[in-house]
Write a structure and sequence with these properties.
The protein is 85% helix and 0% strand. This is Four helix bundle protein. Pfam families: 23S_rRNA_IVP.
Amino acid sequence: MSKQFLRSITSVGANVREAVNAQSRPDFIHKLSIAQKECDESLYWLELLKETNYISEIEFESIYQQNNEVLKII
């Protein structure tokens, strides 16, 4: 699960970077929508990590809040 979280969370940044270099407005929107989906998927993996006690409640709250803020920005 932690590897899945790592993959999805790093994909957010990669897709935002691709959006910055988009070739058109539709391409920009498409790349950001992928980043949004990956960010939401990261929240899912994070919730599973907490429910399986892989991370503590304090770690979860900190990371979840930051991830949720990024999702809102996107």
